[in-house]
Design a protein that fits this description.
mainly alpha; 5 helices; 3 strands
Length: 141
């Protein structure tokens, strides 16, 4: 009699184990599908936002004031201009770097943690994005 009860208990535990794993698998698939749908809804606006500012480094590089900074070395007027441009474009920060990655001007020049004086040449993607024809690059954050 006890053998049949033990067998019945093992059978019930086995069925519970299978049901648990099937339910867990179904739940995991549902959550994964939901997360993919949410991610997809964020993807398009993010790509749009990035594309919206894609040409700004090139446009800023054509600005005579930025070119003068590279020739004359006076960054004070450029810092003020970058502050205004960041406000207009609603960017967190705009900064100008040399070919070596030294930040020489920034829209956050007047705040603690300013990018001015920092070197970002160590970033893995810096050299890959650095146009060889430019003397400096405008980076967007």
């Amino acid at each position: 009699m006890w053998k049949s009860q033990a067998l019945l208990i093992l059978l019930v535990l086995g069925v519970e184990f299978i049901v648990y794993h099937v339910a867990l698998n179904i739940y995991t698939q549902a959550v994964t599908a939901d997360m993919k749908a949410r991610l997809s809804s964020y993807e398009k606006p993010l790509i749009h936002r990035i594309e919206q500012y894609r040409n700004l480094p090139f446009i800023f590089a054509q600005d005579p004031m930025m070119q003068n900074v590279l020739q004359l070395g006076s960054v004070s007027p450029l810092n003020e201009r970058l502050v205004e441009l960041a406000k207009r474009t609603q960017l967190k920060a705009i900064y100008l770097m040399t070919m070596d990655g030294d930040t020489i001007a920034s829209s956050n020049c007047n705040v603690e943690g300013s990018f001015v004086g920092n070197n970002y040449g160590f970033l893995l993607t810096f050299e890959a994005r650095l146009p060889k024809a430019w003397e400096s690059i405008m980076e967007l954050v």
